[in-house]
Amino acid sequence: MIDRILKSISFVFHPLLMPLLGVVFYFAKSPRFIPSEIIRAKLISLFILTIILPVLLFFLLKTLGKVKSIYLDSTKERILPLLLYCVVLILVLQRIVTPSQVIELYFFFVGILISTLACLILAIFKFKASIHMIAVSGLFMFFIALSIHFNININGTLALMSIITGAVATSRLHLNAHTYKELIMGCFIGVFPQLILVNYWL
To answer: Which one of 178, 180, 185, 190 has the fewest CB atoms closer than 10 angstroms to its CB?
Structure first.
């Protein structure tokens, strides 16, 4: 029963969902007036590029025998998917979240790109940082920065994110997917780029 719950946590809070959750949260909390048509167009575009396209690329790589599971269990399996995801993120930065339109989201995705590149470099050197922790901790840091930037009280959301972060870390440990060192490194890689880039938009 516990294994099933922890597997569900890992699936529900899959790294591919975190960028879109950050964008949805931004549009929900931003005090700026942004036409609903623009919001809808960006959300649909991001859903296609950050979720649908990576899933399709995964099935292609699985068909070609390059990966075995969506969790990318080995460092060798990670290299090509992470490289392709970097290309997807560059496309997002060039076409969807340009700095002239939504500077906060632009640097959010720049941070995601830096984190992905760091994870890719570590994979090349045979170190398997937790992608789940990279995603959820990066999102957590972005939420904190937004609360300061817009001067809004989102203590409930931050408390929930603390619980989710702990639950994700627990699930990855219990399922023997990562060691403590890999989880800590994942958390650092997720938080640090977002924290540094805050200086450019906060």
So the answer is: 180
Residue 67 neighbours by CB distance under 10 Å: 22
* Residue corresponding to tokens 């960028």: 19
Distance CA 182, CA 38 (A): 39
**Whether the predicted pLDDT of 78 surpasses 70:** yes
Span 142-169, pLDDT tens digits: 999 999 988 888 999 999 999 999 888 8
Alpha carbon distance 135, 111 (integer Å)? 10
Q: CA 113 → CA 17, 68, 119, 159, distances in Å?
A: 15, 24, 10, 26
Residue 183 and residue 168 in contact, taking contact as beta carbons nearer than 8 Å: no
164 by DSSP, 3-state: which?
helix
How far is Cα 196 from Cα 142, in angstroms, rounded to an integer?
A: 11
Q: What is the DSSP letter of 97?
A: S
